[in-house]
Amino acid sequence: MSAIEKRLSKMEIRFDQGEEFIVVDMGSGLLKAGFSGEDLPRVVIPTVVGERTIEVDQNAQNQLAGNETKAKKSYKFGNEAFLMQEKDSLHEPIERGVIVDINSMEHMLRYVFETQMNLDTKNINVLMTDAPYNSKQLKQDIAELMFETFKVNSFALMNTAVLSLFSTGKTCGLVAECGEGTTYTVPVFEGYALPHAMH
To answer: Is 104 within a domain?
Structure first.
């Protein structure tokens, strides 16, 4: 038994115990989401959010006296956002592999989970990819978002390079990843990325 298998056997939650996980790969160009064990993701959309502020006339809605107006925000995601870019302001929540706008990311994840995959977030387990250069604070913010806002059953945030290597059945190696926003190499030893040697 290898060192990584020994460590995995001591963990309380294992990914191979019959629990179905939603796998979310957040990239600078595309967000991909699907079920663990399936060959292809169910959702692949550009990582872009379109936002528009709509003035809602409270007088027309509630038959109130006066001209009260309230601003309401409307969101579009992926290709729909690009189609409406003349009317909407576009936000790219991920730049160079790192989440820069957690609020837009929340709206995008809600759209993927609830609209595209038709899931109740309170009943899901989520495995999310993590760029090698994400800060500790950002990782904490993502975990807080998943547990406090989406109220998922369980959540794991794992390095993309380590997951890529695991998919080949190996725990040691050098992973070169090329994405839309960044390209990097990550040495992995016994299932752990070596941060001091990433480029």
So the answer is: yes
* CATH number, residue 108: 3.30.420.40
Q: Please state the domain count of the chain.
A: 1
Distance (Å, whole) CA 44 – CA 108: 12
Question: Quick check: is 144 in a domain?
Answer: yes
Q: 28, 94 in Cβ contact below 8 A?
A: yes
Strands (E), the chain: 21-26, 30-35, 43-46, 49-57, 69-77, 89-91, 94-95, 98-99, 125-130, 154-159, 173-178, 183-189, 192-193
> Could you give the count of Cα atoms lying within 13 Å of 56 in the half-sphere of its Cβ?
11
CA nearest to 180, candidates 90, 96, 93: 96
Rounded CA separation 196/27 (Å): 23
In a domain? residue 169: no
Range of the domain at 133: 19-47+92-159
List, for residues 25-68, the tens digit of each pLDDT value. Answer: 988 888 999 998 888 889 998 888 888 787 765 555 555 445 55
- Does this model's pTM top 0.85? My answer is no
Angstrom distance (rounded) from CA 42 to CA 33: 6
Cβ atoms of 21 and 15 within 8 Å: the answer is yes
> Residue 194 pLDDT > 70, yes or no?
yes
pLDDT in tens, 97-115: 888 888 889 989 999 999 8
In a domain, 188, yes or no: no
